[in-house]
Each structure stands twice: as C-alpha cells, then as structure tokens.
C-alpha cells in the first residue's frame, strides 16, 4: 500500500512539474512573440558626450560610436541634435569624431542617444526641402504623411511618385536619407506613418502586424499619390518597411501601378530573422518558433495581442521568388546584425532577371547609406533612372 501511495505521489508530482514546465515555456514563447510585435516606445540614452570642440566631439566608446560613417546624436532627451562624421581617434574608451553640424540645442557633455538616421526633424528642417504635412485617410484613421515636391526638371519622366516606408519601431526620419537623391531625380515623395507608430492611430493594443496589416495603410498613401496625379509609383522601404511593401504588391489591387521597389536591409523571410533574434536572446530556436506559431493560432494570437491570426509563411519571398514581377533594388550589408542578409542574397540568386543586388560590409542594419552615402545614392540613382526611363 505504501509503495502504491509513493508511486501515485511521484506520478502526480511529475504531472504537476510537467505542467509547470510547459506553462513556463509557453510564457517564454509568448514573451518572445510579444517582443517581436510590440513597438519599443522608450529609447534610453546609450552613450555620453564627454567633450565638445569647434570641429570635433568626444564620445564614449560603444559598438556604434566606433563604426565609420555619418550619424547623428540626440541630446537633452531628444531636444538637441548634432551630426558626426569620420572617426578621428579611439583611445582608452573615448572616441573622437568629426563634428559636422548642429541641428538643435547646444552640444555639451552629458547623456545622449545615437541616431543612425543621421538627419533629424522634418524634410524642411533637416534637408532644406520644402514639404507639406498631410493627413491621409486610411482604414484605421488619419495617417500623418510628409509630402515633398520634386525638383524640376528631373532625370525621371513625369508622373512617377515615390512612397517611402520606414521599418519596425523606427520613425519617418529613417527615410530622410533617401529624399535628396529622389528629389534630384524629379520624383515627388510621400513619407507616411502607419498604424501603431507613435504619431499614428493605435490598434490591437499597439501591436505590429509585421507587414500583414500595415500594407493597407501604405495602400491608402499610394491611392493618394494616384489621386494627386501620379501615373506610377516607386516604393522604397527599410527593414520591416520592405515586408510591408512586398505584401502591398502581392495583395493590393493597386499593385499594377507600382513601377519598382528599392529595399534597404529588408525582411524577406520573418522566420530567418526571428530565428536569428532567438539565438541572440539565448532562446532555443524551437521555442522561438513555438511563439511564432502562436501568432497564427486563433487563440494563441490573443495571448500575444495581435490584430488577427498572423501567418508568417506568405511573407517568405525567397520561397515566393517565382511570383516576383517587379524590378527590385536590394541593398544589404553582410554585417547586418538584426536582419541577416542571407534571404536577400538568395532572392537575388533566384531572380537575377529582376533583382539588382548591392551587397556591402561594415554597415549595421539599414546603415548602408551611413557608411558610404555616395555608393548608396549612386546605386539608387542608376537603378531608378534606368528602370523608370524604360518603364515610361
């Protein structure tokens, strides 16, 4: 009798332990999935300004501050901003860089935050390009949008407009780097926010749809361009912005009015990206995949809080390479530590007839322009002017 009681107790304990372990693992999977779809609103300071001179600034050494190229630095909680260039010296945890300009505030020692966009503010303040602030009506409400008229005359035939789409957790400022070359080419540009951006309508508890829902917001902006006189539209996207645009050309009835795509560090396969992110966070890939399956499950998605079941499989554009029908310029660095460049390379290999691939090194995620602005702009200028001239 005693033996049976002990065995029964052991079995019950094992059952409870298994249940608790399963619940804990599910909790980790749900947490991972939530992190993927939740915009990060808090962006804390990540470096210090140690010294400021007339033409140089000394910063603490971080993984960002030692990388060559052009970048910005926010100070005073975002109220101040200055731009830096070449690394002049790295000594004892101190990085001296060229000070290229001050956009707001007065640079002084103190806490600061790195800005990979280089520019800050709107097109007029940052670039001296005239712009209008629009509110484009979409299915979730009014979407803030910058409208930047074209320079005239340009190298691209009239009637082509561009829509520029930032990535996950970013802002419209991410697109500022591309405006000068498109403006020079004679292309009017629209730069929208989309659902769950800080300045746009919030839905589904503020969770992103990873492109599965946001494409409809961009579709509304494309429709605005067409209603305003555009004949064809060039789509330009960074990171998740690329995933959004690829869903638009796959699912929108307006896809036939799209002329080409320019994608910088795009998400072409969410599973590839999120497997990489799971490894970075020391989460077993299989457990991360479980979290992603929850996104697609009618009940599991409620635990995560997304708008509706989210199936990432149709967003694998390496698998769907044969469906691609538009010219694409792909710019991607092999040093991208957030969205690995493997899917971009594989798509370029699968569709050399449509994909122009511009690889690079050294640059972190969507920082190809920062490391070599001339190379980035030359690639975009050549692709856009050639492709759209042929399309005319």
TrEMBL record:
Recorded superkingdom: Bacteria
One Pfam family per UniProt: Abhydrolase_1
Annotated signal peptide: 1-18
Gene3D superfamilies membership: alpha/beta hydrolase
Keywords: Signal
Domain AB hydrolase-1: 163-278
Gene Ontology MF term list: catalytic activity
Name this polypeptide is given: Secreted protein
Lineage, top ranks: Bacteria, Bacillati, Actinomycetota, Actinomycetes, Kineosporiales
């Amino acid at each position: 009798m005693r033996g049976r009681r002990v065995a029964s107790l052991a079995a019950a304990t094992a059952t409870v332990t298994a249940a608790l372990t399963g619940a804990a693992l599910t909790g980790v999977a749900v947490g991972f999935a939530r992190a993927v779809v939740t915009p990060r609103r808090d962006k804390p300071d990540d470096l210090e300004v140690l010294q400021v001179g007339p033409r140089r600034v000394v910063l603490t050494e971080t993984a960002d501050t030692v990388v060559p190229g052009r970048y910005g630095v926010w100070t005073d909680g975002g109220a101040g901003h200055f731009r830096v260039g070449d690394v002049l010296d790295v000594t004892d945890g101190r990085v001296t860089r060229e000070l290229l300009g001050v956009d707001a505030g007065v640079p002084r020692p103190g806490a600061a935050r790195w800005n990979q966009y280089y520019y800050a503010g709107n097109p007029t303040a940052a670039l001296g390009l005239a712009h209008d602030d629009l509110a484009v009506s979409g299915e979730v409400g009014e979407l803030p949008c910058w409208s930047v008229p074209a320079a005239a005359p340009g190298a691209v035939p009239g009637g082509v407009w561009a829509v520029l789409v930032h990535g996950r957790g970013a802002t419209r400022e991410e697109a500022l780097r591309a405006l000068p070359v498109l403006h020079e080419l004679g292309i009017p540009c629209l730069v929208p926010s989309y659902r769950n951006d800080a300045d746009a309508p919030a839905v589904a508890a503020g969770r992103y749809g990873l492109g599965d829902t946001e494409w409809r917001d961009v579709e509304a902006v494309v429709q605005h361009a067409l209603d305003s006189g555009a004949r064809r539209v060039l789509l330009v996207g960074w990171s998740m912005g690329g995933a959004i645009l690829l869903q638009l050309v796959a699912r929108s009835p307006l896809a036939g009015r799209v002329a080409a795509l320019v994608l910088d560090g795009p998400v072409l396969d969410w599973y590839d990206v999120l497997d990489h992110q799971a490894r970075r966070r020391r989460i077993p890939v299989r457990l991360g995949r479980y979290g992603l399956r929850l996104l697609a499950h009618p009940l599991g998605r409620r635990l995560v809080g997304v708008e509706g079941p989210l199936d990432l499989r149709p967003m694998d554009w390496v698998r769907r390479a044969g469906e691609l029908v538009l010219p694409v310029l792909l710019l991607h660095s092999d040093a991208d530590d957030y969205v690995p460049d493997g899917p971009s390379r594989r798509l370029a290999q699968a569709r050399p007839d449509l994909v122009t691939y511009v690889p690079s090194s050294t640059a972190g995620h969507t920082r190809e322009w920062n490391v070599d602005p001339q190379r980035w702009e030359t690639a975009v200028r050549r692709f856009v002017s050639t492709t759209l001239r042929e399309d005319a």
